[in-house]
Structures are given as C-alpha cells and as structure tokens.
C-alpha cells in the first residue's frame, strides 16, 4: 500500500494497493520526487538520457 500525491496540493491524493512486482522504484532523491509532484510532472532535466533512466 502506498500514497500517490496529487498536484498542486500534495496532501491530497490516492492510496493504492499494488503488488510489489508491479512497483518500479526510481533512482531519484526525495527532493526530486517532491519537485516532480509539485510541478505536475514537468521537470527540468538537461540530459535526455536522464529522462530515459526515470522510466526504467
């Protein structure tokens, strides 16, 4: 079970029950994750290879 925050107010969101095999962990910091949520998914990544890494 985990919480999926929504923008622009990350205190609201959804609780989801998902199998661990269906969860994809990202190699980003908490700060980057918060920026991602607060920017409604619009993030500024200068290197296009970094964008590809987020989806792996």
Q: How would you portray this structure in words?
A:
The chain is of the alpha+beta class. It has a domain at 24-56. 29% of the residues lie in helices and 14% in strands. The two termini are 21 Å apart. The mean pLDDT is 76.
Helices and strands in order, then pairings?
Blueprint (H helix, E strand, L loop, with lengths): L1 E4 L7 E4 L13 H9 L9 H7 L2
Antiparallel strand pairs: 1-2
Structural class: alpha+beta
**DSSP summary, beta strand count:** 2
Uncertain residue segments: none
**Helical residue percent band:** 25-40%
- Main-sheet strand order equals 1-2
Order of helices and strands: EEHH
What fraction of the residues are assigned to beta strands by DSSP? 5-15%
Shape assignment: flat
First-last Cα distance: 21 Å
**Rg from alpha-carbon coordinates:** 12 Å
Continuous helix count: 2
Mean pLDDT: 76
Biggest sheet descriptor: 2 strands, antiparallel
